[in-house]
Amino acid sequence: MSFRIASSPHQHSQKTTSQLMLWVAGAALPAIAVQSYLFGYGVLIQLMLAISTAWACEALILAMRQKTILPRLRDHSALVTGLLLAVSIPPYAPWWLIIIGTAFAIIMVKQLYGGLGFNIFNPAMAAYVLLLIAFPVQMTQWLPPTTLQTYDLSLLDAVCAVFTQYSCQGYSIQQLQMGIDGMTMATPLDTARTDLTMGLTLPESFEKPIFSQGAGSGWLWLNVAWLLGGLVLIQQRVIQWRIPLSVLGSLALCSLIAWSINPDIHLSPIFQLFSGASMLAAFFIATDPVSASTTLKGRIYYGILIGVLVFCIRTYGGYPDAFAFAVLLANMAVPLIDYYTRPRTYGHKVKKGLL
Amino acid sequence: MQNLLEQIQAAQLWDFPGGIHPPTRKALTSKKSIAKLALADRLYIPLRQHIGVAGQCLVKKGDFVLKGQALSLADSSMSIPVHAPTSGLILAVEDHTSPHPSALPEPTIVLEPDGLDEWREREPLDHLTCSLPQLLERIQESGIAGMGGAGFPTHLKSAIKQEVECLIINGVECEPYISADDALMQEEATTIVKGIDILCQLLNPKIVLIGIEDDKPDAIAAMQAACKQRDHYFIRVIPTKYPSGGEKQLIQVLTNKEVPAGRRPIDIGMVMFNIGTSFAIAQAVLDDIPLISRIVTVAGDTLTQAQNMLVPIGTPVSALLNACGFQPQAQQRVIMGGPMMGFTLPDLSVPVIKTTNCILAPTYQELPPARQEMDCIRCTACADACPASLLPQQLLWYSKAKDSAKLEEYNLFDCIECGACAYVCPSEIPLVQYYRVAKADSRQQQREALQAEQAKARFEARKARLEAEKQERQQRHEQLAEERAAKQASGSSDAVAEALARVKAKQQDAPTDRETIKAERERLKQQARAKQAAQTDMPPDGEAKSPIASEVSTAKEPADPRKAAIAAAIARAKAKKDAQSATTSDEVVSSTPAEPADPRKAAIAAAIARAKAKKDAQAAAPDEAVSSTSAEQTETPEPTDPRKAAIAAAIARAKAKKQKDTETK
Amino acid sequence: MMVIIALLALGALALIFGAILGYASIRFRVESDPLVEQIDDILPQTQCGQCGYPGCRPYAEAIANGDAINKCPPGGDTAIRKLADLMGVEAKPLDAAQQESEKKVAYIREDECIGCTKCIQACPVDAIVGATRQMHTVIVDECTGCDLCVDPCPVDCIDMLPIPETPERWKWDLDRIPVRVVGAD
User: What are the start and end residues of every segment in region (Hydrophobic) (chain C) (predicted)?
Assistant: First the structure.
């Protein structure tokens, strides 16, 4: 009989990193379902491409870095990165887009910084920004929700569209983007911003069918699904409430102020919160522990920064949605935020008070 | 606004940040009554079982001791004695695996019980009538050290001169499994309260707070009943949360005050004692029972019968486990202490000591060992769990980078090593282990920096001294040269005459000089004899060394180890000289070959020297050297005078060395 | 004409900025240790001379004048790293001939000491006490482990022994705990 030497503590809570990551992936399922329902099978194809690319790249780099591969793949962080990028890009974007994006996210943004835990930028968002700047056309070709689509797309059509950019009937993506009103459609946020530049007021713009349900047909439900998933994560203590609340709160507050000043050119808070990637980013992206702030107070500042940046970019910037930029900018500020929001250690700077 | 004291009296409780709720698993042991463990075959009593300096060992192999007899002497305020847990025979005083995470061997007394359990004479005190110094002396003599785990000498803590607002008795026992204090409170509440009475007499606090976690209803009831007549004793039932039993955390929970960093609780008017300590104080004062046994929780699923046991100090862990039906698994872990802060034992002969509150032998299913450490994802679950509001993920980062400046900036030394961070870490990083290593490194660096500073100062002082000496010499030379020049200038013819005169004068002086020298020598001899006479009861050689050494070191403030070391060296030298002068004067006086042990030693030394010289020579010069050294050796007469022999040996060694050097050249 | 004006203007500007810079360098001077002092503070002060210089300070001066930073075995990699930071050079591994070893201190086998005082003269930090024809001993806490006393000893009675490990100094190296393997019972 021999004895085993180990360091204390000898007891552990049974929550592991891979479980946390699986919870994140699981909580994304309702939203993925809604997104697939809204935009067709393209979403699922992108997901599969993204996740397999993520795994392959992770394994490749781990092998090159001479690290153990299987235990590190099992932490499921690559899965989550691929998943988040896949749901962020247009469902019928060409196949190489997601592969380039995911490979960039895993290899350049994550592994070259030292692997899990060492990257300063959110891999999915950094890749999204790369794609948006390098391939702006492909990255904005969102189809209208299925209810507004002129053509129905089968699974086979979806595969064809992703891999050849033409459906089986030979319609190009541009044709598929055409809505039932015969106009090329974009996301509600994009439409609103284009109309504003064309001199329309928002109430005029909202006449369009894409805005049929408050925050844009379909997008509302998608955001509700992400919200639900996020609440589950909070309830399971996978993420904390601070970042989502401060992101959404600051975004809502900014837009409320702007909207009450001039509703003709500013979107309403409800519209801001339930369109684009608002809920996805607030609950699933900004809360990425590796690149977010690590102190309690810091997380609130971090969230507020993201919210304000999103509002500013959406309102004054050149891009319709802004979460990727906002998150990356906030990532950059994290070391600073962390440094100045360190908690007071027990026994340090105690206020004097007699018993 | 309510005064803080009033708030405390109004039973208000506060909270500390962080903390965790691990499954407590105490019910297995806390409901059973305390079992008494039979005496083991051998008891291993480490000389040091507390924080501070070991007492001086009073026994040697073959001594017979009675139960409760002191085995060591507390010769400074930082040391406390250890006592024989039962009557029996001292088998050895030797190094034995210590009950410390390092398992490094430490001096330990091995006692074989004779089974009679015969007490020494006891003198119970009445604490109400005796003086405070008397009480403190009794506490020190009974070898009481904090029994919560740290093992700080109790007499120091209870001799505080500052005003004590609040005496806190720690019955929290927040670590999972451990229920030793719980059991003690259930069975011995009245004695514990008597111990608290004695502490009150010593410290005179305004209020006494007894903190107990709410998962110990029986203990709370027992203590409440025992404290009924004392209206400034307050039992505080605090919510179960780890680590609320930490000194700083309990103060925060009970009084909402923080101990400033680097200070002690008394600096904010608080003193804290463990339940077990107050029980030990009561026993020591009222019944004159020194600290020779304690309650230990023996738990874990590899035991058929987990329970609390009254264990004589020094009992090896194997005896405890076997008494509880130990069925080990392969690669069994045996943990001394709780699952959060305890350490694993490399073998089971490690004894129970004054600070041991738990022995844990868990199965793999019960406490799965840590799996492969994964990368930190900066989830900050650790920061949320940290009771000291540290940032464990940053500390980990800087520990890995060995950045001691940053570690200090992030207050590494405020970490209490409670293990809450590592408990919650989803990547199963052994955070506490990293911090311990970083702390040890940091301490080492501090020591080395201090040493370097001293070395530099000493080097510089030496350089200055050498420089001064050189200058002095030069000055003298110059002076002499000047004088010579002056004399030569005054007239060279006189110089010879003068020299002659000097020589003459010297010759005249010489006899008187010689006489004074003789007289002086005589006087010294007499002195030596007197000294020898004074030490006749001392054995002549080696054995004389240690008593003198210790005498000197005790006389000269043993607090400074350096001074003590020098003193010891001086004493050794003295002892040696005395021994030698003793033998020579012996020879002078009686001229009979008394031949004490010394010459033999000298002979051995000479032989060793010869062997060495031979070896050296052989290694250096196979042919010539051998002949020369062997010639040398044969010339050397058989050493009868030890000093001569030693010198001869030394000469031989020196010669051999020289030869070797020339050979190599 | 234009050229002259341009030259004058530039010259005036140069003068003004020069004056400002000169004033700033006096007004905002940062008092810092001279380089040699800073280097000396990093060196371990064992005064062992293994670098080839008689003591740490001479080596510090040599480094300040451009000598290699990797000649100090007692300082080890830590000192080299700090020196590299300070000097703005690449950290090099320790000289091949001078491998970092466990820290040791000198002990005199007192029975064999003949009291020649040679070691006392050799000790750079005065850590040996004794007098002519009297036994010598090493003040362990002051010994820097430079082993300069070992060679001069005519009777080879000085040992360099590693400092014994104590629980206080133990560095939590759990892997080195010897586990006693007991036969299965």
Answer: 1-25
Question: C35 — contact with chain B (CB < 8 Å)?
Answer: no
Same domain, yes or no: C110 and C155:
yes
User: Per the annotation, does B418 bind a ligand?
Assistant: yes
- Answering whether pTM is above 0.90, one says no
Question: Any chain A CB within 8 A of the CB of B100?
Answer: no
Same domain, C110 and C82: no
Judge if B299 and B416 occupy the same domain: no
Residues B301-334 pLDDT 10s: 999 999 999 999 999 999 999 999 999 888 889 9
Q: Is the pLDDT of residue A208 over 50?
A: yes
First-to-last alpha carbon distance for chain A, in angstroms, is 55
Domain count of the fold of chain C? 2
Domain contains B257: yes
- Is position B526 within any domain? no
Whether residues C108 and C152 fall in one domain: yes
Identify the residue with better confidence: B163 or B552: B163
Q: C33 CB near a chain B CB, below 8 Å?
A: no
Looking from the CA of B102 toward its CB, the CA atoms found within 13 Å total: 16
Q: What residues of chain B, 509 to 568, have a C-beta less than 8 Å from chain C?
A: 561-562, 565-566
Report chain A residues touching chain C, CB-CB < 8 A.
1-7
pLDDT digits (tens, 9 = 90+) for B197-226: 999 999 999 899 999 999 999 999 999 999
User: If we measure between CA atoms, which residue out of B154, B221, B149 comes closest to residue B185?
Assistant: B221
Of B303, B323, B343, the one marking the end of a domain is: B323
Give the residue among B156, B140, B193, B143 at the shortest CA–CA distance from B171.
Answer: B193
Count of beta carbons in the 10 Å neighbourhood of residue B111: 27
What's the domain range around C148?
104-162
Residue B640, domain extent: 597-664
Domain boundary among the residues B483, B517, B541 is at B483
- pLDDT, position A173: 75
Q: Are residues B176 and B311 in the same domain?
A: yes
Asked if the C-beta of B462 comes within 8 angstroms of chain C's C-beta atoms, the answer is: yes
Contacts of A348 in chain B (CB under 8 A): 260-261, 411, 414
Query: What is the DSSP code string of B23-52?
Result: ----HHHHTSPPEEPPPPS-EEEES--SSS
B171 & B252 share domain: yes
Compute the mean pLDDT over every residue in chain B, rounded to the nearest whole number: 82
Give me the residues of B, 360-399, that contact A with CB < 8 A: 360, 362, 367-370, 372, 374-380, 383-384, 387-391, 393-394
Structure confidence by residue, pLDDT tens digits, A64-102: 998 888 888 888 999 999 999 999 998 888 999 999 999
* B204 and B253 together in one domain: yes
Range B26-32 average pLDDT = 88
Give yes or no for a contact between B577 and B623, defined as CB atoms under 8 angstroms apart.
no
Burial B90-109 (b: 16+ CB within 10 A, else e): bbbbeebbbbbbbbbebebb
Nearest CA in chain B to A287: B379
Question: In the predicted model, what is the mean pLDDT of residues A4-24?
Answer: 87
Chains in contact with A, where contact requires at least 3 CB pairs less than 8 Å apart:
B, C
Q: Residues of C within the annotated binding site for [4Fe-4S] cluster?
A: 48, 51, 56, 72, 113, 116, 119, 123, 143, 146, 149, 153
The verdict on residue B100 lying in a domain is yes
Q: Is the CB of residue B20 less than 8 Å from the CB of residue B292?
A: no
- B448: closest chain C residue by CA: C44
Nearest to C154 among B455, B605, B654 (CB): B654
Q: Give the best-scoring range by mean pLDDT among A165-169, A187-191, A213-217, C162-166.
A: C162-166
Is residue B173 classed as helix, strand or coil in its secondary structure? coil
Annotated binding-site residue? B382? yes
pLDDT of residue B644: 67
The CATH code of the domain that includes B408 is: 1.10.1060
Interface check for A58 against chain B (CB to CB < 8 A): the answer is no
Angle value at C-alpha A71, between A43 and A287, nearest 5 degrees: 50
Has residue B519 been placed in a domain? no
Residues B136 and B33 in one domain: yes
**Chain A residues inside the 8 Å CB shell of B423:** 9, 11-13
Domain check: are C81 and C112 in the same one? no
Is residue A249 very low, low, confident or very high in pLDDT (cuts 50, 70, 90)? very high
List CB contacts (< 8 A) between B331 and chain A.
2-4
Residue B407: both structure tokens together? 């570690």
**Is C150 within 8 Å of chain B by CB?**
no
Q: Does B602 lie in the same domain as B582?
A: no
